[in-house]
Fold these 2 entries.
Entry 1:
Amino acid sequence: YIDVLSGMYDADFFHNRYVLVGAQTVGLGDVHITPFADKSPIPGVELQATILNNLLDESLIKRSVLLEVGMTIVLLLIGISCWGKLNEEKSFAINIVLVGLVLVLTLVLFSSAIYVNPLVPVCSLLCSYLLYIGTSFLRLTTDLVRGIQLLREKMEESQQFLFQEIPLEI
């Protein structure tokens, strides 16, 4: 920067170039914490240089809504096909495995510069599973109430039969 101000470079040297001016020293206060900073914050000028480089190279992370929707549909189809056929422990285990697979797949895609929000398919799967459990509980409760009513009716019939007057013939 001082060399430029002192005139060591011609004005044509900077023609069609991007110039970022900033301090690289962390102690100056212009620092940012990023997920990719290992142990220390990154100076602001380096962060801006990285963003500019990504824009120029078109190497930005791209979001794929189509993959989110596809993963959600596949998860729901797998879950719905398994839930009614397996006991609750196996269904729950399958849900945990599916959530783990979604998280691993989103990490793999992220390393390829594709962002898929894992909350969409995971929350859809978990909410539909809770809905399945709720409807199963309501169905079971309805069946139990019907069974209790049927038993009550049978008990009343048997009480009427037991306590009916039996004519004595002597």
Entry 2:
Amino acid sequence: MLDGFSDAQLESFRRDGFLIVEEGLLSDGAIEALRERFAAVFAGDYATGIAPDEVNWKKGRDPDDVTRQICNGWRADDLIAAQVLSERTGRLAAELMGYRGTRMLQDNCLWKPPGARSLGMHQDGSYAGYLVPPEMITCWAALDDTQAAGGTIEYVRGSHRWPRVPPDRGSFHAPEDWLAPMRAAAPDGVEPERVPVVVKAGGCAFHHSLTFHGSGPNEATVERRALVSHLVPVETRFHPDNVDLVYSRYRRRGDLSLDESYFPVVWDENGGRSAWLSSLPELP
């Protein structure tokens, strides 16, 4: 199982803005358990009785040819929480970014069935202006074997050194041209190099919050499911003026700190993991 990184892997992350690990983040048992809970959460079966923060696809309400997305599925299901809030994931992410600790910002449950359309190129950091510092690192964990033609996530090598672009939520879900934001942001004279994430189920990729990424249409005959953790430095606070339409609801009046009930500390070099996480089940 993945438990740390070599010097070469750390250097690769710093150079490219992402690191792909072909296998070993999740066991076979964990993959099967998480696939089962994926199906339940997307069917509206919330084991905790609490709905996710964002449910961007519902059967019968939304088209079948778009990527299904749920944000903060961990609030609805403790087994999903066991992965996205895992201490190991938090520690690995901190190692790559040089953080002294990490806390959960939000998760994504992403399900791209055959024929599903693209997700537009973007920088996660574009949407983090309501935080100080406005940054994060993301762990993307595959629940299915991926292939280049199967709508897998793609990174643009070295794009974490490009300028931060303004957020554009309208270009994210099933845009006409999913690569347009990347082309518009590329510095003069730079030819973007796209790298598809081809891994086994249980493999993963980590990326910097300014790294451009997205995914093309799923032209394969298999599902593409992924579980994503967006993790911020442990000392992150709310911005005193900027707000987010959804997540600033968790900001207390007169208090800029991130409440550990909603943004738990998943790993800290001093052992300061949020105490309530000990109640979560263990993945197989």
